[in-house]
Design goal:
Structural class: mainly alpha
Order of helices and strands: HEHHEEHHHHE
Radius of gyration: 21 Å
Number of strands: 4
Distance between the termini: 30 Å
Shape: elongated
Largest sheet: 2 strands, antiparallel
Strand content: 5-15%
Helix content: 40-55%
Strand order of the largest sheet: 1-4
Length: about 180
């Protein structure tokens, strides 16, 4: 299964947004600059995250993005579904019923065994993604940091974080 670049970009952005101050936001342009990606491409994914209720936006020249929920309430599955959609990765076209000499219909009363196996695998994959949250990713990064990651983030936020004046505390974020 191949996920698009947007999933990686979205997860990185969400982990970074988790470190904002209570009234801070970051613009799409700032996030794109931080990761060296296309701002227009990233904006498309931020809009998908917004539509899924994972980030909120503050409009205007001082506006930007922030988490809509606490980091422990956003799973990797939430992100994948927001960016890639909910359609299963494997789509059975029932090619076993095609060809010059197809079998009688009585052989097709059960779903294709290949489709069934692939859907079981996808179910396991999605269950794994559902168990990992943005907070888990942040905790893993923090645990392995010798200070350089935190220093880079703090320096970036000192320049790019915008204050909205709306102090939305972590407790007010929807869980």
């Amino acid at each position: 299964m191949k996920l698009g670049d947007g999933v990686e970009q979205a997860i990185h952005c969400l982990t970074f947004l988790a470190g904002l101050s209570d009234d801070g936001v970051l613009s799409a342009a700032s996030l794109a600059d931080l990761y060296g990606v296309s701002a227009s491409y990233l904006l498309k994914h931020l809009q998908a995250l917004s539509g899924a209720g994972l980030v909120t936006t503050t409009p205007g020249p001082k506006g930007g993005y922030r988490l809509a929920k606490s980091a422990d309430a956003i799973s990797l599955l939430d992100v994948v579904l927001a960016i890639e959609g909910s359609v299963p990765a494997f789509r059975c076209a029932e090619i076993r019923q095609r060809g010059p000499n197809p079998l009688p219909g009585r052989y097709f009363y059960k779903p294709c065994q290949i489709k069934a196996a692939m859907l079981r695998a996808e179910k396991a994959y999605r269950a794994e993604l559902a168990m990992v949250t943005i907070a888990d990713i942040v905790a893993e990064v923090t645990a392995g940091d010798e200070g350089e990651v935190a220093a880079r983030g703090c320096a970036f936020l000192a320049i790019h974080e915008r204050k909205t004046g709306n102090r939305a505390s972590s407790q007010e974020k929807v869980k």
